Every structure is written in C-alpha cells, then in structure tokens.
UniProtKB/TrEMBL annotation:
<dbReference type="Pfam" id="PF00288">
    <property type="entry name" value="GHMP_kinases_N"/>
</dbReference>
<dbReference type="GO" id="GO:0050201">
    <property type="term" value="F:fucokinase activity"/>
</dbReference>
<keyword id="KW-0067">ATP-binding</keyword>
<dbReference type="InterPro" id="IPR036554">
    <property type="entry name" value="GHMP_kinase_C_sf"/>
</dbReference>
<keyword id="KW-0808">Transferase</keyword>
<dbReference type="InterPro" id="IPR052203">
    <property type="entry name" value="GHMP_Kinase-Related"/>
</dbReference>
<dbReference type="GO" id="GO:0005524">
    <property type="term" value="F:ATP binding"/>
</dbReference>
<dbReference type="InterPro" id="IPR020568">
    <property type="entry name" value="Ribosomal_Su5_D2-typ_SF"/>
</dbReference>
<keyword id="KW-0547">Nucleotide-binding</keyword>
<dbReference type="InterPro" id="IPR001174">
    <property type="entry name" value="HddA/FKP"/>
</dbReference>
<dbReference type="Pfam" id="PF08544">
    <property type="entry name" value="GHMP_kinases_C"/>
</dbReference>
<dbReference type="InterPro" id="IPR014606">
    <property type="entry name" value="Heptose_7-P_kinase"/>
</dbReference>
<feature type="domain" description="GHMP kinase C-terminal">
    <location>
        <begin position="243"/>
        <end position="321"/>
    </location>
</feature>
<dbReference type="InterPro" id="IPR006204">
    <property type="entry name" value="GHMP_kinase_N_dom"/>
</dbReference>
<dbReference type="InterPro" id="IPR013750">
    <property type="entry name" value="GHMP_kinase_C_dom"/>
</dbReference>
<protein>
    <submittedName>
        <fullName>Dehydrogenase</fullName>
    </submittedName>
</protein>
<feature type="domain" description="GHMP kinase N-terminal">
    <location>
        <begin position="82"/>
        <end position="168"/>
    </location>
</feature>
Length: 342
C-alpha cells in the first residue's frame, strides 16, 4: 500500500513569536499568516520484511532498523522516529509498522517558513491516510505540536502546525488551554495585489531558532514589569490585529507600515534576531525600493519578506541577485495538508 501527502509552508505576516509558551499562556498570542505554494511532501509504503526505513531526501539522511514498538530518539531523523513512536503507541495498539517513509521539502530546515513543523504535519497526514485514523484538523495540528515540543523537547511555538494543517489566510489565537483558527476570506484581487507587492528572499543562512525562542521565553517569564523585551512582544502581538484590519480593508500600504514597525519591535525581543549581514541586505533592499521588510519565523536568517511597489520590483530583484541569497517566486495557497492513496 502506498500513500502520499503534501502540506504547505507559510509566511507569518504579523504576530510571530507570541505563539510561544509561556507568553501565549500568560497573555494570549495572536498571529496572522498565510500559506504558500511551497510544500513538505511525504510518501509511506508498507513493507513485508519487518523493517522500517526513513529517507529524508532533501537533507540526505536515512535510517533503517527492525520494525520495533519504539525507536530510540537519537542521532538522525528524530522527528521521523518520534512520529512513528506516537502513531504506533497511540493508534496501532503498540504493534510495530513495517514501512518506508520518504520525505522532502521545498525549503531547507531553518528557513523561517515553518519547514520542520510542516514536515511533521505532512508525515502525520500520511499515517492518518494509511491507518484511517480519526483525526480532525485541530487534532492533527495539536498532535504535531505535542510530538515536536513534548516528545522531542524542541523549542518553538504553535502556529506552524496549524498553518500547515488548515492552509490559506488565518488569524490565529493561542491561549493556555486552546487554539482558535479563524480563516479569513480574502478577495482574489486583494491576494493578487498583495502577491505583486511582496518579494520573498532567502538569505542563504539557515538558523537555529532555539536561542531566539529561549530569549523570548525569558522575557515572558520576567518578573520585571518594565522588561523591554516583554513590551516588544506586546507590540508584536498588537501588530497582528493592525495587519489583519489592513488586509481586510485592502490597505496594502498600511500593511507595509505595520510590517516596518513590527520588525523593529521584533528585533527588540532578542539580540539574535538580526545580525550585520541581515542589516546589510536590508539596507540594500531599502536602497533599491523596498518599503519595509522582516525575517519570516523566529529570525536570525532564513527567508526575508519585503514590501515593494510593483513598478520597483524588478530593479529590487536584480539588486538582490547580486547577493549570496536567492529570490523565490511564490503564490498564496488556500488549502492545507492533503493526503491520498495511490
């Protein structure tokens, strides 16, 4: 039996970082994001030799062993192993699964587009299809979150799992005891104009978001009420409301202005979010027509999103091509994770 799945990557438009505990538990987190036509892919096929084999083709890592009830979470492909363990334990009565799991992603780890979490969602959706598991959208996203944050002890927030599962434009609310995904119906002409004004640029630097997230956790836990990092997170959260209002009103210029102030606030939450290379690229972009910009995800590298008047877009792209990074073409998608049987 063969099943396949694909889950879309996302860009955060506003509010990123406020979905991380304990900030979201204490103050509530709010994020506006949208998925792109860049995906994480998974194929699962059953085997008849009692073996389990994982192959992450994009990062050229493999793992093979006997099909056991539980695989040790060490060395390579920890996420693949953790997903297998959880599915076997909770949904297959502890019976091992003899399978191949083959994966690849359109974006590298550390891209800032939620690639790791999106891959978890894609793999889980393939298992759901294979075993006909009774998992709704919220169930799938929450399970993906638990596997990453609890089983694997990886630092991070919650938005990526929900974005990949639901897809499209979403305004998300994160609280200690619940997550609410509010889908936004954005007219096609608004989507087209927004696409025409955004340049997506990969800095060429993949980053580990752990240090940045740890700084944000420290700020959220601070007993000092005047902690500037905590105030900055409050400002980042407020930007999500402002960005949503501009989007719904088709105020793209307003969205660009919100992005500009939100990026300044975001940089105040951790000294690791920006660096001299990122600032150099940012200044180059502004010198060639970018109205505002920010790094997607936790920061420190990965993808940079820029607003630019469409008539200045090609000169900006030409200038960016002289750097060590890459400009990526994209379109928004309005669907989340999907899986099918071959």
């Amino acid at each position: 039996m063969i099943v396949r799945s694909k889950a879309p990557l996302r860009i955060g438009l506003a509010g990123g970082g406020t979905d991380v505990s304990p900030y979201s538990d204490k103050y509530g987190g709010y994020i506006l994001n949208v998925t792109l036509d860049m995906f994480a892919y998974a194929t699962i096929q059953t085997r008849d030799d009692g073996k389990v084999h994982f192959n992450a083709q994009d990062i050229e890592q493999t793992f093979e062993s006997d099909a056991l009830p539980e695989l040790a979470l060490d060395d390579t492909l920890i996420l693949h192993k953790a997903i297998y363990n959880r599915v076997v334990r909770d949904y297959n009565q502890g019976e091992p699964l003899a399978i191949d799991v083959i994966t690849h992603s359109d974006a590298p780890p550390g891209s800032g587009l939620g690639s790791s979490s999106t891959m978890v969602v894609a793999i889980l959706a393939a298992y759901r299809e294979l075993l006909k598991l009774p998992l709704g959208e919220y169930d799938l996203a929450h399970l993906a979150y638990e596997i990453e944050r609890e089983d694997c002890k990886l630092s991070g927030g919650k938005q990526d799992q929900y974005a990949a599962t639901f897809g499209g434009f979403n305004f998300m609310e994160f609280h200690e005891d619940r997550v609410l995904v509010n889908p936004l119906r954005i007219r096609t002409d608004i989507q087209n104009e927004l696409e025409s004004q955004i340049v997506l640029y990969f800095t060429g630097v993949s980053r580990d978001s752990g240090k940045i997230i740890d700084d944000q956790i420290k700020a959220s836990s601070s007993s000092e009420s005047k902690d500037k990092s905590l105030y900055a997170l409050h400002a980042v959260k407020q930007s999500a409301f402002e960005m949503k209002e501009c989007l719904l009103r088709n105020d793209i210029e307003g969205m660009s202005n919100v992005l500009k102030s939100a990026w300044l606030a975001k940089k105040s939450t951790s000294a690791s979010i920006s660096n001299s290379y990122i600032e150099e690229v940012a200044q180059l972009a502004i010198d060639h027509g970018a109205k505002s910009l920010k790094l997607s995800g936790a920061g420190g590298g990965g993808f940079m999103m820029m607003f630019v008047d469409p008539i200045h877009k090609q000169p900006l792209i030409k200038a960016l091509k002289q750097t060590s990074g890459q400009v990526h073409s994209f379109q928004f998608t309005n669907f989340g994770v999907t899986a099918w049987t071959v």
